[in-house]
Amino acid sequence: MSVSLSTHVLDTAAGRPAAGVTVELLRANEPVASMQTDADGRARLADALAAGVYSIVFHPPSPFFRRVELEVELADGHYHVPLLVSPFSCASYRGS
Model pTM? Predict the structure, then answer.
């Protein structure tokens, strides 16, 4: 099986990608990857993961949402999990 994961953080209050956001990937509370989003708000977290349950932890540019953690179950294939964040809300979805 081949599992890969990427993300995209959008600052919806500013209407642009959120660059420099720290994103961590954990499995069973153990670090797998940690990086910052690029100038386009994107990060490719991993290309060769084992299938299973992971936590994606975002530290977004919001004065209210200081840490957003999503638990996802990954099987074979590529997953793209964006985060949309503002001082008033946050949302995520499974992208393509």
Answer: 0.94
